[in-house]
Amino acid sequence: MTGLLVVTAVPAEAEAVRAGLPDADMVVVPVGVGPAVAGAATARLLALAEAAGRPYQGVVSAGVAGGFAGAVAVGGTVLGTRSVAADLGAESPAGFIPVDELGMPPELLGGGVAIAADPDLLATLQSNLPEATVGAVLTVSTVTGTARSTEELRRRHPDAVAEAMEGYGVGVAAAHAGLPFVELRTVSNPIGPRDRDAWRMREALAALTTAAAALA
Ligand SMILES: O=C(O)c1cccc(C(=O)CC[C@H]2O[C@@H](n3cnc4c(=O)[nH]cnc43)[C@H](O)[C@@H]2O)c1
């Protein structure tokens, strides 16, 4: 695929992606952790490329993620059907209220509380990665670390297969630039009660290198 901008959170993820694309003419940039910094940095990269007369043709948010048990195993690969701002909203005694249910004008919500994957980009990656689990990827600003919040996320987003921290922000940047977007993740840890010993970062980075070949 030509003209894609691939953004990751951290340099180790960018290196893993590049290792799977030895000959590809693809730009891979670590843009930082969390939706705000990743979104802002991606928007700047897209604007600079456009101003230079060499606009990108699409944007991929790539990296490691937590996986929901039963949906995807550690070491597995995920393709996002949409990237959901899962913690953007308001708490209330009756529970969490998503931002799009707070009565704000829709134009203030950018692309809404979820950015859908581009159907063509997703279909191409799905055919290159038939073993990938396909579903919604949640974007959170805080890594989920209790059974209670895990169950709450599952209840609110039954189609979710994974969570990470950048997809929605990167997706908003792509949407503002009018570009196709997709999120590609490999699973480093199960989502649930915090257990740092259960993280398998090396395995997830190796899987990311394998999955990145699908972008070539
Ligand atoms: O909790 C820690 O001690 C810790 C130490 C190093 C890194 C982290 C991260 O949270 C890295 C987050 C990074 O990776 C993605 N990611 C991976 N697993 C998850 C998850 O279960 N929930 C949310 N994000 C996850 C995320 O996109 C960040 O870029 C933690």
From TrEMBL:
It catalyses: futalosine + H2O = dehypoxanthine futalosine + hypoxanthine. The keyword Manganese does not apply. GO terms for cellular component: cytosol. Keywords: Hydrolase, Menaquinone biosynthesis. Residues 23-214 form the Nucleoside phosphorylase domain. Gene3D superfamilies: Nucleoside phosphorylase domain. GO terms for molecular function: adenosylhomocysteine nucleosidase activity; methylthioadenosine nucleosidase activity. Pathway: Quinol/quinone metabolism; menaquinone biosynthesis. It holds the Pfam family PNP_UDP_1. Catalyzes the hydrolysis of futalosine (FL) to dehypoxanthine futalosine (DHFL) and hypoxanthine, a step in the biosynthesis of menaquinone (MK, vitamin K2). This is Futalosine hydrolase. The lineage of its organism: Bacteria, Bacillati, Actinomycetota, Actinomycetes, Micromonosporales. The gene is mqnB.
